[in-house]
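Researcher: Here's my situation. A collaborator sent me these components and asked whether they could plausibly form a single complex. I don't have experimental data yet, so a predicted model of the whole assembly would be a useful starting point for our discussion.
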Amino acid sequence: MSALPSPEPAPDATEADASEAETPGSAARKPVRRRMSGPARRRRIEDAALAVFSAKGYGAASMGEIAEAAGVTRSVLYEHFATKRVLFLTVLGTQNAALVAHMGTAITGRGGRRTRMRATVAAYFDFAEANPTARRLLFDQTDEGDPELSAVRWGIRQTRTRAVMAMMAHDTERAGLDPRSSDAEVLIELLISSLDGVAQWWAHHPDTPRATLETMAAGVLWSGLEGLNPRRDPAE
Amino acid sequence: MSALPSPEPAPDATEADASEAETPGSAARKPVRRRMSGPARRRRIEDAALAVFSAKGYGAASMGEIAEAAGVTRSVLYEHFATKRVLFLTVLGTQNAALVAHMGTAITGRGGRRTRMRATVAAYFDFAEANPTARRLLFDQTDEGDPELSAVRWGIRQTRTRAVMAMMAHDTERAGLDPRSSDAEVLIELLISSLDGVAQWWAHHPDTPRATLETMAAGVLWSGLEGLNPRRDPAE
DNA sequence: GATCGAACCGACAGCAGTGTCGGTTATCGC
DNA sequence: GCGATAACCGACACTGCTGTCGGTTCGATC
């Protein structure tokens, strides 16, 4: 019998505590707030869910494990999210939005085409390094024959691809492709999945310096894109 | 009560029937052999398992569903494979061997480098088109936090990558890389995952003609590889 | 300090899946 | 034809998970 339920099992502190968890006025160090406000607890649950879903996939993740990671019992989860599925979709949407926002600034940034290619590659590896769990959740193919989840996931992928297509329209056009053709779409799919493949590999070889990956990926993809239309002169 | 268990629910006939299912001597059309020989049934089970595991992933696939697809009850599965896990690993190994064998002939075939690159790309799309289920099983990241399965899967991936590295050693060297360096490894990972990314996309856009994909992928990857070492002259 | 909302908990019902076991019957060798 | 091997089945015990419910106690407000 472990008697006292121990205020909080030291949940790694996802950062400074959530928004309104600490009343900033009373400076008197309440060491841990046993009972959090609704929104704060909700944030914690989403963080925990991201971790567990990312590690196990949707099916193998259990609400019990998520609850434990969030420092709470299962019942509490159901007060914030109607079902496991709703929780999953919420997390998925949030993380995807974060990714798209993160990438956008790099792709459409200033600088020459080659510079932006390098920046784009760097931005993706940035994201993969800073949010390895989110990367897995978004890219690893863990549909379990569930039609709805599969559809949602492909919707997200499609949105992502289209966004990159739009952002790189100028570049694909310069490579001699109609930027809205399926040729261009295939090209973008190739770019994205090659980057993610390298990121996957990186996650298992964390000692490899980032510069190695970036240089290699940016080099290959740059030459590959450039070589598509050998007629054009290489002037920027 | 559905009375007669119905000889066989017409399991799509995976091809001409399994090896020894039909005694070739007695030409007298026994329409369906109700009770198959051990090895024949085992083959059917493996085929069914491939389909179900591929569609659902390891965790979400149930022995009941595999049994049904194999035209048999669950108990029979356990007479051929000790556990679900053993069945899964068996199928995984078989399919991976098939893939490596299939790719090998294309990569190390005759012809110039550019020709072989195109042949390699074509070989992969061949495989993806002919064995979509095997492709999913081998490439889609469906580890569910299971340490053993995860290890096995990465072992397979590593083996595959090393094999391709060896087969393309001449090409990577010509591109200015040490063919056993981690640079080369990253390059190969990039090649493989970009191809598979396109194959994934293709599976959702089956109307796209193969030539489109092949030309695009081979073009980008060829230029990308070639552009890595701009110092070399392009003589074959 | 009394009151009220809501954050939290333990327990329950129901379901789906795995692996096991004893019994049944098709099919092959004699 | 007859017996033995083994392919096959139905049922069972057990486990783990989801979603629900009634009750408890923290903490903010008046």
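Model: Some features of this prediction you could bring to your collaborator: DSSP finds ten helices and no strands in chain A. Chain A touches chain B through 48 residues (CB under 8 Å).
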